[in-house]
Design brief:
- By secondary structure, the chain is α+β, with helices and mostly antiparallel strands.
- The chain has helices at residues 15-18, 20-24, 59-66, and strands at residues 2-5, 27-33, 36-39, 52-56.
């Protein structure tokens, strides 16, 4: 399980649009947004600037998301 600050290119898009599971083989477990945590976010949840995404996956694939 890793924490990843949402890269700019992901912001403004929903989890469904990003399709991180199929593109990178990672699962989004939660989104930290300020003082809130959205556990098991729905596909329609939009990633916002400053969000921290908790994902399950291997480090190599996570590096591809961040780049």
């Amino acid at each position: 399980i890793y924490e990843l600050e949402a890269p700019e290119r992901l912001t403004g898009r929903t989890l469904k649009e990003l399709d991180l599971r199929n593109r990178y083989g990672v699962n989004v477990l939660a989104i930290k947004r300020g003082e809130s945590v959205i556990v098991n976010p729905k596909a329609g949840e939009e990633i916002r600037k400053g969000d921290v995404i908790l994902v399950l996956g291997n480090e190599e694939k996570l590096q591809k998301i961040g780049s």
